[in-house]
From TrEMBL:
Signal peptide boundaries: 1-20
Keywords associated with the record: Signal
Species in which this protein is naturally found: Amphritea balenae
Domain of life, per lineage: Bacteria
The protein, known as: SoxXA-binding protein
Length: 140
């Protein structure tokens, strides 16, 4: 009898647990399964699996837009550097973005600057995770 009750409870609650999926998990699942720009549904609303940096870089490839994106990436990288969580490769990506802009390849400059800004943003997330989970790095 107990087994039957447990099975019934599990079957009844399973949809509840599936519906409790966080937005981040739904976003990451859609992004992994269907790629950039995939449309997914979460809590009755539709969203697009696009990083904010991809949206910012999805503008006309002009020198002004490339410079604006590079400036945003540098500002975000400065912010993460102040926290001590700057990624080594971000500086190189910014240099490549500036070189692409100097060569007149504004689309490449936009894309590289967006990538650098993304890395800086994830570095900030990494910092906050480390601050709230520091005990996980202490040896037992």
């Amino acid at each position: 009898m107990k087994k039957a009750l447990i099975i019934v409870a599990a079957l009844t609650l399973a949809p509840t647990f599936a519906a409790a999926e966080s937005f981040e998990k739904a976003y990451l699942k859609a992004r992994a399964m269907y790629g950039q720009g995939a449309v997914f549904e979460w809590q009755g609303n539709q969203y697009v699996a696009t990083h904010e940096e991809e949206s910012e870089a999805n503008v006309d490839a002009t020198e002004a837009n490339a410079q604006m994106m590079i400036d945003k990436a540098k500002a975000k990288n400065k912010e993460v550097a102040a926290l001590g969580f700057e990624w080594k490769l971000t500086g190189d990506i910014l240099k490549k973005a500036e070189a692409a802009k100097a060569d007149g390849d504004y689309r490449k400059a936009l894309d590289l600057a967006a990538q650098a800004k993304y890395h800086a943003r994830i570095g900030i997330q990494q910092y906050h995770y480390a601050q709230s989970n520091w005990q996980l790095s202490v040896p037992e």
